[in-house]
Amino acid sequence: MSSPIEDYALIGDCETAALVDRTGSIDWLCWPRFDSDACFAALLGGRENGRWRIAPRDPSVRVTRQYRDSTLILETRFETADGAVVLTDFMPLRNGSSEVVRLVTGVRGRVTMTLELVLRFGTGAIVPWVSHLEDGTLRAIAGPEMVVLQTPVVLEGRDLTTVAEFTVAAGETVPCVLAWAPSHHPTPPPFDALAALAETESFWREWASSCRPAGRWSSMVVRSLVTLKALIYAPTGGIVAAPTTSLPECLGGTRNWDYRFCWVRDSTLTLFALMNAGYFHEAQAWRDWLVRAVAGSPEQIQIMYGLGGERRLTEWEVPWLAGYEGSRPVRIGNAAYSQLQLDVFGEVMATFHHARHGGLAPESSGWDLQKRLLQHLETVWREPDEGIWEVRGPRQHFTFSKVMCWLAFDRAIRSADEYGLPGPVGRWTALRDEIHADVCAHGLDPRRGCFVQAYGSGELDASLLLLPKVGFLPIEDRRIAATIAAIEEDLLAHGFVLRYRTHRTRDGLPPGEGVFLACSFWLVDAYVLQGRHAEARALFDRLLDLANDVGLLAEEYDVHARRQVGNFPQAFTHVALVNSAYNLLAARPPAPAEQQEEATAAS
Ligand SMILES: OC[C@H]1O[C@H](O[C@H]2O[C@H](CO)[C@@H](O)[C@H](O)[C@H]2O)[C@H](O)[C@@H](O)[C@@H]1O
């Protein structure tokens, strides 16, 4: 059985990522891309579905771990009765090859370690053919894939598993390097693990050093940004929503989805957070990715794509995996790719508008693309859709979707005005005003005076917290105040925010899920706008407390089980965290005592 979600840490090389638990086991790794088949899938099944564990043979008295400063290099320290070792895990940035490096360094005494490598290609199903080459390399091949293990440790094959036992004394370092290559390529050459460590460290340090300081929240903000950067597929600029599939939104339930794709929504929001923190290079790469991905007929625009812009993301269920704590089915692919979600138009237009402010290099095809999107939006905004939450029930006229259509035209008008870009501005203005009137007429509950989830519905929806943030109505507007109050009354669980009441909404799925962390950060933002600073800070700090020991958050949190749930780590959540931190920071100047605290945190 896998570990609790919060026991995992992320390592990655900006093309794929792995999850390592507190016992030194890598239980998830898709190779060579985020969306490839996994060779370690124990996360969604058992050890027989593939994992790589390096840990002390005898029980550890204490396990602590941390990332090395602002990097993606994980250090797990095991204390045993015989001494202490540090296991350093990382994936070097690629330079033609792809590796997972594990270094075992003795800190005190002499510690006997065990290594157990279970390679199962095809996401936990295929046992490869394993051979020991003359130079000591272990090579595993099945079909198109090859994985090799290079280490001075003497390896042995037992029960379709590679095992070893070795002792590390204080001051010694034992390297283990696992490399992937297509099976028709030559076996990867010997790899200098220590040189790679130094290069990887300086890459991440340098990248993190240009982050705009976030006062007392700097370390959590940097961790979130490093995580977001790790989710960007470097060759194309596409951004995955999370590196995992099918971590359940409800333990033991069926709300299990594949997030290893690029949602236009999640990607734009990620960029927003990165730009907020001062990163524009990634924005440029993603804009170019988007221009390529949506090229062609505007009617065929999708809400999500593959890493390279692939369009067919057919969803299927994996029969051989038992699922995370029995949460089945395990899904690969995501049927949401063919949905209509009107909010993405607003998110795209807002992000590009923001990027212009930040000085993103002008590019004519970028504006052309945006104009084409608006042309298409003009023909579809009156349609019902699946909405931001991607319901699998009947389409509805979701209020948030319509508001984001308003936003799309509003930001286009502003871009045209401020940067002298060609319109038709008059046409966009008429549409913007028409949508605004439509939402105010149909998206409001006349009895309570608050906005509701969908036209004609009495249900609330946490996405409505974003209405003042995008400027649809001012925060002082009584309808906005009523909406925030109604959400506080109806959607809070232990002070955190549910997306909506699943048992009262036709989302096509059995009810029940955790509180949605991004939505909880949106409540922080709403409090900031309302000037409720103490409540905003209190909620923000409670949310930060949900992060695991290395600062990572999943999509949701189960307040009863006190467990993280949903895919992990999730971009959406970390994006919201970053934005809330900057919003809180900008809200008011810190008191003198806090200034001192923040200066210490930033140094
Ligand atoms: O629970 C229903 C839906 O859950 C997923 O969508 C959620 O994740 C997306 C990626 O982070 C996010 O963009 C969306 O707003 C969330 O609702 C899943 O991908 C859907 O297929 C599923 O219907």
Automatic annotation (TrEMBL):
Keywords: Hydrolase. Transmembrane segments: none annotated. The keyword Hydrolase applies. GO terms for molecular function: hydrolase activity. InterPro entries: 6-hairpin_glycosidase_sf, 6hp_glycosidase-like_sf, GH15-like, Trehalase-like_N. It comes from the Bacteria. This is Glycoside hydrolase family 15 protein. It comes from Rhodoplanes tepidamans.
